[in-house]
Amino acid sequence: MSETVVVVVPDAEILASAVAARLVVKIIDAQAERGWASIVLTGGRVAAKVLRAVRELPAADAIDWTHVDLWWGDERFLPAGDPERNETQAREALLDALSLDPARVHPMPAAGGPDGDDAAAAAARYARELAAAAKPGSSELPHFDVLMLGVGEDGHVASIFPEHPVYHATGTTAPVHNSPKPPPTRVTLTLPTIQSAEEVWLVAAGPDKAAAVGMAISGAGPKQLPAAGATGTDRTLWLLDRAAAANVPSKLRSLR
Ligand SMILES: O=C1O[C@H](COP(=O)(O)O)[C@@H](O)[C@H](O)[C@H]1O
Predict the structure, then answer these.
(1) Tens of each residue's pLDDT in the chain, 256 residues
(2) Residue 153 Cα, ligand 1 centroid: separation in angstroms?
(3) Residue 206 near ligand 1, beta carbon < 6 Å
(4) Percentages helix, strand, coil for the chain, rounded to the nearest 5?
(5) Full-prediction pTM beyond 0.95?
(6) Which end of the chain lies in a sparser environment, N or C, as judged by fewer CB atoms within 10 Å?
(7) Total of domains in the chain
(8) Any idea what the CATH number is for the domain that residue 77 is in?
(9) Does residue 8 form part of some domain?
(10) Residue of the nearest CA to atom 2 in ligand 1?
(11) How far is the CA of 158 from the centre of ligand 1 (A)?
């Protein structure tokens, strides 16, 4: 039985360091148990803050970064190195400072890469990469210990936007065309793929997120508000600052 927990902290800075601390402990625990950990990164402003906070945490030195698998929940389909790519932002915020095993780092393909400007082919390529990392005979997906998500003002998660056809995508990944948020072309994990993660962490800060967060936690439909459908198999954690949590019913909060 999966549980949902809502954690509210005072502000965005504290949120970033609290999420970073959780992430570091989760990776340390997974490595203690089986030697490796598998994390799905997200893009966006709060995500970059979290990754910068990980870099500053002394406890992060307890992680064997060569045994961490890194995936992405979505990508803005732009050329490699573009500053708007989620990969570029994650590398600048944290990854470039770590001793990672490049074979365990799995950015989504870039525009102008092996698939040119074909986002559908890029999404299919990423699906094959995921399948290649799955346990033989089990599924098309590897195990994800934690899948982190930002939450858009409109309630989107990864690049699954409200009322967008990508909501109905089958398969593990999907191209996104005509995204309401720039850039218009993206690649994303699908909702069923997100739902395969052991833990899903939805991280949001600021008053602009309050309406979407409040509705998603209070039971809105996932087609209208994709964040409402982002759940983990064991646990769904909403990690919020006070401003983003303004519309969350107080009985659902675990901390003020
Ligand atoms: O475009 C995107 O936006 C969302 C939310 O970003 P934020 O800056 O409002 O926190 C992000 O989660 C997603 O990965 C990204 O592609």
Answers:
(1) 789 999 999 999 999 999 999 999 999 999 999 999 999 999 999 999 999 999 999 999 999 999 999 999 999 999 999 999 999 999 999 999 999 999 999 999 999 999 999 999 999 999 999 999 998 777 899 999 999 999 999 999 999 999 999 999 989 999 999 999 999 999 999 999 999 999 999 999 999 999 999 999 998 999 999 999 999 999 999 999 999 999 998 888 764 3
(2) 9
(3) no
(4) 40, 20, 40
(5) yes
(6) N
(7) 1
(8) 3.40.50.1360
(9) no
(10) 44
(11) 7
